[in-house]
Design brief:
single chain; 334 residues; alpha/beta; Rossmann fold; 14 helices; 37% helix
């Protein structure tokens, strides 16, 4: 079977070469758009990452394709409708990093609420004075609003409770275990109005596109902290930027943002850039904004899980043992 891997970190290449040495394996460290068409035509199984945009146009160049495996939780970079139509199976890794992302989320919350970025900047300038500019707040006097209480959001809610915060939650599915521990489920509008810190943990879908927009930002308290470790397009960058300019936020923590791949993959060197990129770059310079390059998942344990799960999926598919990987399917066998 011809197996194609794209967007593989250079340090992971030897691992996959050894683990899958019995297969006809081709590995690219670049994204799928850089793969020659003759290699795409041969591919029967492809393993990709979140910046590999598998559109109908690109997928149509892979007539032999039987399985797409994305080494990520999210799969919004894959045209699932086309895959269903053509009988192409799609797998993902449903849970390799809930702890990593939840911890990163709370690291952002603590850094912003305790004003550590501003303090560090002052100390670098030899300013060791104490004044209201670096006055912090206590978490146990704040309300945390968690939007989406799946594997990651539920952990963030629990961390909030551990810090003594009042925790409000919004999700279509209400978890009884969180309610029993003290979390309060409420409407989205009520959560936006009542929370001092809002953390986003929803998948990107048509329904969640620009979930945080001008109208919903207007419902938030003045001085709110907003954290996004979900997907960039859940937040309308233009509305966020305008609200920040008006002084709406005490702080922003963004691990994901719209058009992030242009900055992360340095596509601006190819002449590709957007006004959203410029707004994110401007925000990144502010001492009450934290921007990280989609690395909330990026821990040693998470990378180990990604590698192990990917090899398991590929080997099981090649053997025809689909039962072993039934929990990985996004588009499964009919």
């Amino acid at each position: 079977m011809n197996v194609l891997f794209t967007s593989v970190p250079q340090e992971d290449v030897p691992f996959y070469q050894e683990a899958l040495k019995d297969l006809s394996l081709k590995i690219y460290t670049t994204d799928v758009s850089k793969v020659p068409e003759n290699e795409l035509k041969k591919a029967e199984l492809i393993s990709v990452f979140v910046y590999d945009k598998l559109t109908e146009e690109l997928l149509s160049k892979m007539p032999r394709l039987k399985l797409i495996h994305t080494r990520s939780v999210g799969f919004d970079h894959i045209d699932l409708d086309y895959c269903k139509k053509k009988g192409i199976l799609v797998t993902h890794i449903p849970a390799y990093s809930p702890e990593s992302v939840a911890e990163h989320t709370f690291a952002m919350i603590l850094t912003l609420v305790k004003r550590l970025k501003r303090i560090e900047d002052r100390v670098k300038k030899l300013n060791f004075s104490q004044d209201s500019e670096i006055l912090a707040r206590e978490l146990n006097r704040l309300t945390l609003g968690v939007i989406g209480t799946g594997r990651i959001g539920s952990r963030v809610a629990m961390y909030g409770l551990a810090f003594g915060m009042k925790v409000l939650c919004y999700d279509v599915v209400k978890r009884e275990d969180l309610k029993e521990k003290g979390c309060v489920y409420t409407s989205l509008d009520e959560l936006l109005k009542e929370s001092d810190v809002i953390s986003l943990h929803v998948p990107y879908t048509k329904e969640t596109h620009h979930m945080i927009n001008e109208e919903r930002i207007s419902l938030m308290k003045d001085g709110v902290y907003l954290i996004n470790t979900a997907r960039g397009k859940v937040v309308d960058t233009d509305a966020l930027y305008r609200a920040y300019q008006r002084g709406k936020f005490s702080g922003l923590g963004l691990d994901v943002f719209e058009d992030e791949e242009i900055l992360i993959l340095k596509k601006y060197t190819e002449g590709k850039a957007t006004d959203k990129n410029l707004k994110i770059l401007e925000l990144a310079c502010k001492d009450n904004v934290i921007i990280t390059p989609h690395i909330a998942y990026y821990t040693d344990k998470s990378l180990e899980r990604i590698r192990e799960e990917t090899v398991k999926v590929v080997k099981a598919f090649v053997k025809g043992d689909l039962e072993q990987i039934k929990g990985n399917f996004v588009v499964g066998p009919s």
